[in-house]
């Protein structure tokens, strides 16, 4: 059975569920609406709170086992002392859903006393995210040893338009993130550039979007020598996919989302060291994020024009691969000296940024797992946000914050450009170790022609190498939430 999530306006006392999850703040009191449920458990919830066994600390859980009717199990989940937010509700709901999966309850109801619309959105998103998995490549245990997957979530919320709308948004973002995470978790031999074409066609068909697909020959005709030099070492057909959601007036300039889609990054001739190279299957999370965002924007039928563009290939060493010292020409005519073939993401994005110009963007935002340096600078808790136009940067920072995918501004000063000057070409593709994320962003800027642009370096945030409790090891869903939030905010204006 596929995953289903629904909104209910029922009171918690009326709920008949194998699991009722209740999200509580730090140092909680028992909400009057929960008295009947507590009574059915012999007062165990109230006692746990007065004894301070359960304190509502962030990520804290306590499970109560009830009878055969009503709330058959009750799970308290703490959300800590921070003010109620979408991200806080999302995190607690994800913890609850993962717990439900471990117990094998199959279904779950979830509530947060006094939830506003934003909290409901967080609950919907978190519950769906916490039930996500990618079981396709693993043999499942025998029926009697198996724990039921969480396949049905009911969010309890107020009967208002604002709550219904927020719930729908949470579900749409969750579905977009599920698409992105699935693409990410797929190994490099399963998720290929062709997979982006297939997923793009599905999204386009579902939501009535226009799709354009370019292969090697079409890209040659467009003189995309920068993108193509990365694809030179692989027999796999490189793909550029563009999806157009036309929800706004025909003459409205679109928001253009652009994603780096390296299905695997070996580094090419400048090959990466073997340890942990397998994580480079996630080097397509920018492109996956664009696909996921287009799905969510299509589902929400946002009354705005949005274009999603991805560039996908695999960076491989081979007899035909591009090599250090080679000079290539991008589609805007600029020449690039390849210093390090492992700085391939910016080469793909360069031609995508030139391609984006034909859509006359109101704003273009690219997302890329672009540099290891951003992981050194910001770690795993902030997206690196680069842009020359302050209002555009502020818009993206606000969207990221609301979506629970926070970013942090990085400088794009001209002074750093010295580092990417070449002796033989217009530009070098690397600028040395110092300020590696900034010189990468400045390289991209050379291909932006006259439209507002923001670059997101998501190398530290698009996937996690450890289990974070609320997010399992693997893809996080970033930057789908940020992209969708930008489109929603613009659609509201
Ligand atoms: N895909 C990598 C960046 C990356 C590193 C993503 C770690 C996620 C985790 C990118 O293509 C790359 O290899 N960048 C190089 C650039 C260098 C050669 C200038 C890097 O960061 O080392
Ligand atoms: Mn690389
Ligand atoms: Zn890469």
Question: What are the salient characteristics of this protein?
Answer:
2 domains; 34% helix; binds zinc ion; binds manganese (II) ion; Aminopeptidase; eight-stranded mixed β-sheet; 493 residues; alpha/beta; Leucine Aminopeptidase, subunit E, domain 1; six-stranded mixed β-sheet; binds ligand BES
Description:
By secondary structure, the protein is α/β, with parallel strands linked by helices. The protein folds into 2 domains: 4-159, Leucine Aminopeptidase, subunit E, domain 1 (3-Layer(aba) Sandwich); 174-492, Aminopeptidase (3-Layer(aba) Sandwich), CATH 3.40.630. The chain has helices at residues 35-40, 44-50, 86-103, 117-130, 161-185, 193-207, 216-221, 225-231, 285-299, 345-356, 373-378, 390-403, 436-445, 480-492; strands spanning 4-8, 20-24, 61-65, 73-78, 105-111, 148-156, 210-214, 239-246, 255-265, 305-315, 327-329, 335-337, 363-368, 383-387, 407-409, 427-428, 453-457, 463-464, 474-475. The strands form 4 sheets. It has an 8-stranded mixed beta sheet with strand order 7-8-10-9-13-17-14-15, sandwiched between helices. A 6-stranded mixed beta sheet has the order 1-6-5-2-4-3, covered by helices on one side. A hairpin with a 7-residue loop joins strand 3 (61-65) and strand 4 (73-78). Helix 3 (86-103) packs parallel to helix 4 (117-130), helix 4 packs parallel to helix 5 (161-185) and helix 6 runs parallel beside helix 9. It is elongated, with a radius of gyration of 24 Å. The chain starts with a strand and ends with a helix. Bound molecules: ligand BES, manganese (II) ion and zinc ion.
């Amino acid at each position: 059975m596929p995953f289903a999530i629904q909104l209910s306006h029922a009171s918690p006392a009326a709920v008949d569920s194998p699991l009722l999850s209740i999200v509580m703040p730090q140092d909680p009191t028992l909400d009057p609406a929960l008295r009947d449920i507590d009574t059915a458990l012999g007062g165990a919830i109230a006692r746990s709170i007065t004894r301070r066994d359960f304190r509502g600390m962030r990520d804290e859980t306590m499970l109560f086992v009830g009878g055969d009717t009503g709330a058959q199990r009750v799970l308290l989940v703490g959300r800590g002392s921070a003010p109620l937010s979408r991200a806080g509700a999302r995190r607690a709901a994800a913890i609850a859903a993962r717990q439900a999966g471990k117990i094998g309850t199959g279904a779950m109801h979830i509530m947060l006393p006094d939830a506003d619309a934003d909290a409901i959105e967080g609950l919907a998103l978190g519950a769906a995210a916490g039930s996500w998995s990618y079981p396709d490549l693993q043999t499942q245990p025998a029926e009697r040893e198996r724990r039921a997957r969480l396949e049905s979530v009911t969010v309890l919320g107020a009967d208002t338009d604002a709550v219904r709308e927020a719930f729908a948004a949470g579900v749409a973002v969750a579905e977009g993130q599920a698409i992105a995470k699935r693409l990410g978790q797929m190994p490099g031999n399963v998720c290929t550039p062709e997979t982006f074409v297939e997923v793009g066609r599905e999204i386009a068909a579902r939501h009535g979007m226009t799709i354009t697909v370019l292969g090697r020959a079409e890209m040659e005709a467009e003189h995309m020598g920068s993108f193509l030099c990365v694809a030179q070492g692989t027999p796999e057909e490189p793909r550029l996919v563009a999806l157009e959601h036309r929800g706004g007036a025909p003459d409205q300039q679109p928001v253009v989302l652009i994603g780096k889609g390296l299905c695997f990054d070996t580094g090419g001739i400048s090959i990466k060291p073997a340890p942990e190279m397998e994580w480079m299957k996630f080097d397509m999370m920018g492109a996956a994020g664009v696909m996921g965002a287009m799905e969510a924007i299509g589902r929400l039928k946002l009354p705005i024009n949005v274009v999603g563009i991805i560039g996908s290939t695999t960076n491989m060493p081979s007899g035909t691969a591009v090599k250090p010292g080679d000079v290539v020409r991008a589609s805007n005519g600029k020449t690039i000296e390849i210093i390090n073939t492992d700085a391939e993401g910016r080469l793909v994005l360069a031609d995508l940024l030139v391609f984006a110009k034909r859509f006359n963007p109101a704003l273009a935002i690219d997302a890329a797992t672009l540099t290891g340096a951003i992981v050194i600078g910001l770690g795993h808790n902030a997206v690196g946000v680069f842009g020359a136009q302050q209002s555009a940067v502020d818009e993206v920072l606000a969207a990221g914050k609301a979506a629970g995918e926070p970013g942090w501004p990085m400088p794009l000063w001209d002074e750093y450009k010295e580092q990417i000057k070449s002796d033989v070409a217009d530009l070098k593709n690397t600028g040395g170790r110092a300020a590696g994320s900034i010189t990468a962003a400045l390289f991209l800027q050379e291909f932006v022609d006259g439209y507002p642009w923001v670059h997101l370096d998501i190398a530290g945030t698009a996937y996690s190498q450890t289990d974070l409790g609320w997010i399992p090891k693997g893809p996080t869903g970033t930057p789908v939430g940020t992209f969708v939030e930008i489109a929603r905010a613009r659609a509201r204006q």
